[in-house]
Amino acid sequence: MKTIDELYSLALQGTLLSQQEIKYIMQKAIEILSREPNVLYLSSSITIVGDIHGQFMDLKELFETGGSIPNTNYLFLGDYVDRGPRSIEVMILLILMKIKYPDKIHLLRGNHESKRPNQEYGFQVECLVKYNQNGNNVWLYFSEMFNYLPIAAVIENKLFCIHGGLSPLIQNIDDIKNLDRFRDLPNEGGFADLLWSDPDPSILGFGVSVRGAGYLFGENVVDKFLYVNKLETIVRAHQVCLEGYNILFDGKIITVWSAPNYCGRFGNYASIMEVDEMLNKFFNIFEDSDRLVSNPENRKKIKEAMNAEMEKYFQ
Ligand SMILES: [Mn+2]
Protein backbone atom coordinates (compact mmCIF):
# COMPACT_ATOMS: atom_id res chain seq x y z
CA MET A 1 0.00 0.00 0.00
CA LYS A 2 1.27 3.44 -0.92
CA THR A 3 1.66 6.09 1.81
CA ILE A 4 -0.70 9.04 2.14
CA ASP A 5 2.08 11.29 0.79
CA GLU A 6 2.47 9.08 -2.29
CA LEU A 7 -1.28 9.01 -2.87
CA TYR A 8 -1.41 12.79 -2.42
CA SER A 9 1.20 13.47 -5.11
CA LEU A 10 -0.69 11.17 -7.49
CA ALA A 11 -3.96 12.96 -6.69
CA LEU A 12 -2.40 16.36 -7.38
CA GLN A 13 -1.65 15.12 -10.91
CA GLY A 14 -5.22 13.89 -11.34
CA THR A 15 -4.24 10.22 -11.34
CA LEU A 16 -7.06 7.83 -10.46
CA LEU A 17 -6.39 5.66 -7.42
CA SER A 18 -7.25 1.97 -7.13
CA GLN A 19 -10.50 0.75 -5.60
CA GLN A 20 -8.61 -0.38 -2.47
CA GLU A 21 -6.79 2.96 -2.18
CA ILE A 22 -10.09 4.84 -2.41
CA LYS A 23 -11.62 2.57 0.26
CA TYR A 24 -8.60 3.25 2.49
CA ILE A 25 -8.65 7.05 2.17
CA MET A 26 -12.44 7.23 2.61
CA GLN A 27 -12.09 5.29 5.89
CA LYS A 28 -9.33 7.69 6.98
CA ALA A 29 -11.50 10.67 6.06
CA ILE A 30 -14.49 9.27 7.97
CA GLU A 31 -12.31 8.98 11.13
CA ILE A 32 -11.49 12.69 10.85
CA LEU A 33 -14.91 13.95 9.72
CA SER A 34 -16.84 11.97 12.35
CA ARG A 35 -15.06 13.97 15.05
CA GLU A 36 -16.11 17.30 13.55
CA PRO A 37 -19.33 18.88 14.86
CA ASN A 38 -22.35 19.68 12.66
CA VAL A 39 -21.40 23.37 12.88
CA LEU A 40 -17.72 24.28 12.61
CA TYR A 41 -16.46 27.38 14.41
CA LEU A 42 -13.56 28.78 12.38
CA SER A 43 -11.20 31.75 12.55
CA SER A 44 -10.15 34.15 9.83
CA SER A 45 -8.18 34.59 7.69
CA ILE A 46 -9.90 32.01 5.52
CA THR A 47 -10.77 31.53 1.85
CA ILE A 48 -14.33 30.40 1.07
CA VAL A 49 -15.01 28.25 -2.00
CA GLY A 50 -18.31 27.53 -3.78
CA ASP A 51 -19.40 24.72 -6.11
CA ILE A 52 -16.73 22.68 -7.97
CA HIS A 53 -18.85 19.99 -9.72
CA GLY A 54 -16.15 17.68 -11.01
CA GLN A 55 -14.10 20.35 -12.85
CA PHE A 56 -10.68 19.02 -11.82
CA MET A 57 -8.47 21.26 -13.97
CA ASP A 58 -10.42 24.29 -12.75
CA LEU A 59 -9.90 23.17 -9.15
CA LYS A 60 -6.15 23.20 -9.85
CA GLU A 61 -6.63 26.71 -11.30
CA LEU A 62 -8.44 27.65 -8.07
CA PHE A 63 -5.44 26.66 -5.94
CA GLU A 64 -3.15 28.61 -8.30
CA THR A 65 -5.43 31.62 -7.72
CA GLY A 66 -5.95 31.30 -3.98
CA GLY A 67 -2.72 29.70 -2.84
CA SER A 68 -1.87 26.13 -1.97
CA ILE A 69 -2.70 24.17 1.15
CA PRO A 70 -1.34 24.39 3.88
CA ASN A 71 -0.35 28.02 3.19
CA THR A 72 -3.98 29.14 2.79
CA ASN A 73 -6.91 28.12 5.04
CA TYR A 74 -9.89 26.92 3.01
CA LEU A 75 -13.58 26.38 3.66
CA PHE A 76 -15.43 24.61 0.84
CA LEU A 77 -19.22 24.96 0.73
CA GLY A 78 -19.96 21.64 -1.00
CA ASP A 79 -21.05 20.30 -4.41
CA TYR A 80 -17.74 18.67 -5.30
CA VAL A 81 -19.29 16.05 -7.59
CA ASP A 82 -21.81 15.65 -10.44
CA ARG A 83 -22.18 17.60 -13.72
CA GLY A 84 -18.46 17.83 -14.55
CA PRO A 85 -16.35 14.97 -15.98
CA ARG A 86 -13.82 14.43 -13.16
CA SER A 87 -15.74 14.26 -9.89
CA ILE A 88 -13.65 11.30 -8.70
CA GLU A 89 -10.35 13.17 -9.13
CA VAL A 90 -11.79 16.28 -7.43
CA MET A 91 -13.03 14.30 -4.44
CA ILE A 92 -9.85 12.23 -4.08
CA LEU A 93 -7.67 15.36 -4.06
CA LEU A 94 -9.84 17.25 -1.55
CA ILE A 95 -10.08 14.22 0.75
CA LEU A 96 -6.30 13.68 0.71
CA MET A 97 -5.85 17.37 1.54
CA LYS A 98 -8.25 16.85 4.45
CA ILE A 99 -6.32 13.79 5.66
CA LYS A 100 -2.95 15.55 5.39
CA TYR A 101 -4.03 18.97 6.73
CA PRO A 102 -7.29 18.48 8.67
CA ASP A 103 -7.17 21.94 10.28
CA LYS A 104 -6.30 23.78 7.04
CA ILE A 105 -9.19 22.63 4.87
CA HIS A 106 -12.81 22.18 5.88
CA LEU A 107 -15.35 20.53 3.60
CA LEU A 108 -19.06 21.18 4.10
CA ARG A 109 -21.76 19.06 2.52
CA GLY A 110 -23.63 20.19 -0.59
CA ASN A 111 -26.92 18.86 -1.93
CA HIS A 112 -24.94 16.80 -4.48
CA GLU A 113 -23.08 14.89 -1.75
CA SER A 114 -26.02 12.52 -1.71
CA LYS A 115 -27.08 9.34 -3.52
CA ARG A 116 -30.14 10.52 -5.41
CA PRO A 117 -28.42 13.46 -7.23
CA ASN A 118 -25.37 11.23 -7.94
CA GLN A 119 -27.63 8.73 -9.72
CA GLU A 120 -29.15 11.48 -11.84
CA TYR A 121 -26.32 13.95 -12.52
CA GLY A 122 -23.29 11.87 -13.39
CA PHE A 123 -21.16 10.87 -10.40
CA GLN A 124 -22.40 7.29 -10.19
CA VAL A 125 -22.04 6.84 -13.96
CA GLU A 126 -18.48 8.26 -13.80
CA CYS A 127 -17.60 5.63 -11.17
CA LEU A 128 -19.12 2.86 -13.32
CA VAL A 129 -17.27 4.02 -16.46
CA LYS A 130 -13.88 4.48 -14.78
CA TYR A 131 -13.97 1.39 -12.48
CA ASN A 132 -16.11 -1.03 -14.51
CA GLN A 133 -17.39 -3.88 -12.36
CA ASN A 134 -15.94 -2.25 -9.23
CA GLY A 135 -17.61 1.06 -10.02
CA ASN A 136 -20.62 0.72 -7.80
CA ASN A 137 -18.49 -0.19 -4.78
CA VAL A 138 -16.23 2.81 -5.46
CA TRP A 139 -19.30 5.04 -5.61
CA LEU A 140 -20.56 3.58 -2.30
CA TYR A 141 -17.21 4.35 -0.58
CA PHE A 142 -17.65 8.01 -1.55
CA SER A 143 -21.35 7.95 -0.62
CA GLU A 144 -20.54 6.66 2.87
CA MET A 145 -17.96 9.42 3.39
CA PHE A 146 -20.51 12.07 2.31
CA ASN A 147 -22.63 11.12 5.35
CA TYR A 148 -19.90 12.48 7.66
CA LEU A 149 -19.36 15.91 6.09
CA PRO A 150 -20.30 18.76 8.47
CA ILE A 151 -23.33 20.93 7.64
CA ALA A 152 -22.38 24.53 8.35
CA ALA A 153 -19.61 26.83 9.60
CA VAL A 154 -19.49 30.07 11.56
CA ILE A 155 -16.47 32.31 11.04
CA GLU A 156 -15.46 34.65 13.88
CA ASN A 157 -19.06 34.51 15.18
CA LYS A 158 -20.07 36.77 12.26
CA LEU A 159 -20.28 34.84 8.98
CA PHE A 160 -22.69 31.92 8.68
CA CYS A 161 -21.59 29.55 5.91
CA ILE A 162 -23.90 26.93 4.35
CA HIS A 163 -24.32 25.35 0.92
CA GLY A 164 -27.87 26.49 0.12
CA GLY A 165 -29.71 28.71 2.57
CA LEU A 166 -32.33 28.83 5.31
CA SER A 167 -35.26 26.65 6.39
CA PRO A 168 -38.61 27.37 8.05
CA LEU A 169 -37.69 24.53 10.44
CA ILE A 170 -34.34 26.05 11.52
CA GLN A 171 -34.59 29.15 13.71
CA ASN A 172 -31.16 29.12 15.30
CA ILE A 173 -27.75 27.52 15.11
CA ASP A 174 -28.61 25.08 17.93
CA ASP A 175 -31.29 23.56 15.68
CA ILE A 176 -28.49 22.66 13.23
CA LYS A 177 -26.35 21.20 16.02
CA ASN A 178 -29.28 18.93 16.94
CA LEU A 179 -29.71 17.44 13.43
CA ASP A 180 -28.66 13.82 12.85
CA ARG A 181 -26.29 14.37 9.95
CA PHE A 182 -24.71 10.89 9.76
CA ARG A 183 -27.06 9.68 7.07
CA ASP A 184 -27.90 10.20 3.40
CA LEU A 185 -29.42 13.61 2.78
CA PRO A 186 -33.20 13.40 3.30
CA ASN A 187 -35.55 14.75 0.60
CA GLU A 188 -37.20 17.19 2.98
CA GLY A 189 -36.87 18.69 6.44
CA GLY A 190 -34.42 21.16 7.96
CA PHE A 191 -31.27 19.30 6.90
CA ALA A 192 -32.39 19.14 3.25
CA ASP A 193 -33.55 22.78 3.23
CA LEU A 194 -30.16 24.08 4.43
CA LEU A 195 -28.49 22.42 1.43
CA TRP A 196 -31.19 23.11 -1.21
CA SER A 197 -32.72 26.55 -0.56
CA ASP A 198 -32.10 29.83 -2.43
CA PRO A 199 -32.59 33.50 -1.52
CA ASP A 200 -35.16 35.41 -3.60
CA PRO A 201 -35.37 39.25 -3.54
CA SER A 202 -38.89 39.17 -4.98
CA ILE A 203 -40.59 37.43 -2.05
CA LEU A 204 -41.11 37.80 1.68
CA GLY A 205 -41.08 34.76 3.93
CA PHE A 206 -40.64 31.33 2.36
CA GLY A 207 -41.80 30.32 -1.14
CA VAL A 208 -41.91 27.19 -3.29
CA SER A 209 -38.67 26.32 -5.12
CA VAL A 210 -38.60 25.04 -8.71
CA ARG A 211 -35.82 22.67 -7.64
CA GLY A 212 -38.39 20.41 -6.00
CA ALA A 213 -36.48 20.56 -2.69
CA GLY A 214 -35.76 23.34 -0.22
CA TYR A 215 -37.42 26.77 -0.34
CA LEU A 216 -37.00 30.26 -1.68
CA PHE A 217 -36.60 32.79 1.13
CA GLY A 218 -36.86 36.57 1.29
CA GLU A 219 -34.92 39.34 3.00
CA ASN A 220 -37.08 39.31 6.14
CA VAL A 221 -36.17 35.65 6.71
CA VAL A 222 -32.49 36.56 6.46
CA ASP A 223 -32.89 39.54 8.82
CA LYS A 224 -34.58 37.38 11.45
CA PHE A 225 -31.99 34.60 11.25
CA LEU A 226 -29.08 37.03 11.50
CA TYR A 227 -30.71 38.91 14.39
CA VAL A 228 -31.63 35.80 16.42
CA ASN A 229 -28.14 34.33 15.99
CA LYS A 230 -26.20 37.63 16.34
CA LEU A 231 -24.60 37.17 12.92
CA GLU A 232 -23.75 39.64 10.12
CA THR A 233 -23.74 37.75 6.85
CA ILE A 234 -24.77 34.46 5.24
CA VAL A 235 -22.21 33.06 2.79
CA ARG A 236 -23.52 30.32 0.50
CA ALA A 237 -22.98 28.73 -2.94
CA HIS A 238 -25.42 26.55 -4.94
CA GLN A 239 -26.35 29.04 -7.72
CA VAL A 240 -24.20 29.80 -10.75
CA CYS A 241 -23.09 33.48 -10.94
CA LEU A 242 -21.89 35.00 -14.23
CA GLU A 243 -19.20 37.08 -12.47
CA GLY A 244 -18.31 34.33 -9.97
CA TYR A 245 -20.20 35.83 -7.05
CA ASN A 246 -23.42 37.65 -6.21
CA ILE A 247 -24.32 40.01 -3.36
CA LEU A 248 -27.93 40.33 -2.18
CA PHE A 249 -29.81 42.24 0.53
CA ASP A 250 -27.09 44.89 1.07
CA GLY A 251 -24.45 42.23 1.65
CA LYS A 252 -26.44 40.14 4.08
CA ILE A 253 -26.32 37.26 1.58
CA ILE A 254 -23.27 36.45 -0.51
CA THR A 255 -23.19 33.69 -3.15
CA VAL A 256 -19.74 32.31 -4.06
CA TRP A 257 -19.47 30.21 -7.22
CA SER A 258 -16.19 28.41 -8.02
CA ALA A 259 -16.89 26.39 -11.19
CA PRO A 260 -15.80 28.56 -14.18
CA ASN A 261 -17.57 27.96 -17.49
CA TYR A 262 -19.93 25.66 -15.61
CA CYS A 263 -20.72 22.45 -17.50
CA GLY A 264 -18.47 23.70 -20.31
CA ARG A 265 -21.17 26.06 -21.58
CA PHE A 266 -22.19 28.79 -19.14
CA GLY A 267 -19.34 31.17 -19.95
CA ASN A 268 -19.27 32.33 -16.33
CA TYR A 269 -16.31 33.44 -14.29
CA ALA A 270 -15.63 31.80 -10.94
CA SER A 271 -14.48 33.25 -7.64
CA ILE A 272 -13.25 32.42 -4.20
CA MET A 273 -13.95 34.80 -1.31
CA GLU A 274 -10.88 35.68 0.72
CA VAL A 275 -11.72 36.86 4.24
CA ASP A 276 -8.94 38.57 6.18
CA GLU A 277 -8.44 38.93 9.96
CA MET A 278 -10.60 42.08 10.00
CA LEU A 279 -13.34 40.20 8.06
CA ASN A 280 -12.72 42.30 4.94
CA LYS A 281 -13.91 40.32 1.93
CA PHE A 282 -12.09 40.07 -1.39
CA PHE A 283 -13.47 38.17 -4.38
CA ASN A 284 -10.56 36.59 -6.20
CA ILE A 285 -11.90 35.97 -9.72
CA PHE A 286 -10.60 33.23 -12.00
CA GLU A 287 -11.59 31.65 -15.29
CA ASP A 288 -11.52 28.14 -16.69
CA SER A 289 -8.18 26.42 -17.23
CA ASP A 290 -8.84 26.36 -21.01
CA ARG A 291 -9.21 30.20 -21.03
CA LEU A 292 -12.49 30.03 -22.96
CA VAL A 293 -14.39 32.43 -20.69
CA SER A 294 -12.28 35.54 -21.34
CA ASN A 295 -12.28 35.00 -25.11
CA PRO A 296 -14.92 37.48 -26.42
CA GLU A 297 -16.09 35.29 -29.32
CA ASN A 298 -16.57 32.33 -27.05
CA ARG A 299 -18.22 34.45 -24.42
CA LYS A 300 -20.88 35.67 -26.83
CA LYS A 301 -21.62 32.17 -28.12
CA ILE A 302 -21.64 30.66 -24.66
CA LYS A 303 -23.99 33.31 -23.30
CA GLU A 304 -26.54 32.67 -26.05
CA ALA A 305 -26.47 28.94 -25.42
CA MET A 306 -26.67 29.58 -21.72
CA ASN A 307 -29.82 31.65 -21.85
CA ALA A 308 -31.54 28.75 -23.57
CA GLU A 309 -30.37 26.20 -21.05
CA MET A 310 -30.40 28.20 -17.82
CA GLU A 311 -33.49 26.44 -16.47
CA LYS A 312 -32.16 23.00 -17.21
CA TYR A 313 -28.85 23.60 -15.45
CA PHE A 314 -30.28 25.64 -12.60
CA GLN A 315 -29.10 23.27 -9.89
MN1 LIG B 1 -25.93 22.89 -4.97
Q: How much of the residues is beta strand, in percent?
A: 15-25%
The number of domains is 1
Provide the gyration radius in Å: 18 Å
The CATH homology group name: Metallo-dependent phosphatases
Poorly predicted runs are none
What overall form do the CA principal axes indicate?
A: globular
Strand arrangement across the biggest beta sheet: 1-5-6-10-12-11
Q: Determine the fraction of residues in helical runs and give it as a percent range.
A: 25-40%
Instruction: Spell the H/E element sequence.
Output: HHEEHEHEHHHEEHHEEEHEEEEEH
In CATH's first tier, which class applies? Answer: Alpha Beta
Distance between the termini: 39 Å
CATH topology: Purple Acid Phosphatase, chain A, domain 2
Arithmetic mean pLDDT = 95
Number of helices: 11
Q: Summarize the biggest pleated sheet.
A: 6 strands, mixed
* Structural class determined from secondary elements: alpha/beta
What is the number of beta strands? 14
**CATH architectural group:** 4-Layer Sandwich
